[in-house]
Amino acid sequence: MIRLREIEMRFDDARALSLPALDIAPGERLGIGGENGSGKTTLLRILAGLLRPTRGTVTGLPRPGRAVLVHQRPYLFRGTARDNVAYTLRLHRRPLREAEEWLRKLGAAHLAGRRAEDLSGGELRRVAIARALAARPVLLLLDEPRADLDAEGEEALNRVLADLDGTVVVAAPEPGFLPLERTVTLAAPGRTPAGD
What we know:
The protein is of the alpha/beta class. The chain has a domain at about 1-65 and about 175-195: Rossmann fold, CATH 3.40.50. It contains five helices and nine strands. Strands 5-6-7-3-8-9 form a six-stranded mixed sheet, sandwiched between helices. It has a three-stranded antiparallel sheet with strand order 2-1-4, with helices on one face. α2 packs across α3 (about 100-105), α2 runs parallel beside α4 and α3 crosses α4. The protein is globular and about 45 Å long. The two termini are about 20 Å apart.
């Protein structure tokens, strides 16, 4: 169980996130909603272990390397789509042949030999998610994963997430396009957050 209590994140004098409490159960599919500036990305970065909150406590995070964040504007390394997924497989000492399988699951097998710099926004996102999934994370964090995806890409993402064993946290203004068990809506700092 991941537990966050009395979380506040400040950058200089600006408060970026204010969250009284949040519990995330193992294997849960959680949506984080809210308007721009409510702290969705900041919360994902805290859950990924990339930021420490200015105030509050976070317990139960996975050990380093077991939480993977796919950024709102994902980036790929130089090389092909296959090279990008293979990089993660090498890091985790998994068979490189799995690269093709992860790309196929995201509907991106046809992109395997394409160079990263030649991919469209939606293609780049599919490859970035395939690379993240290749790590087999226990906590997958997706920041606005729908951006740039067409209907086929959204369907592929839904299928993959439905079969995933780990915990998934999706941040988006309206995350309900994915099969989620619960959604928490962040308010802009200074307002009261809500949950359903």
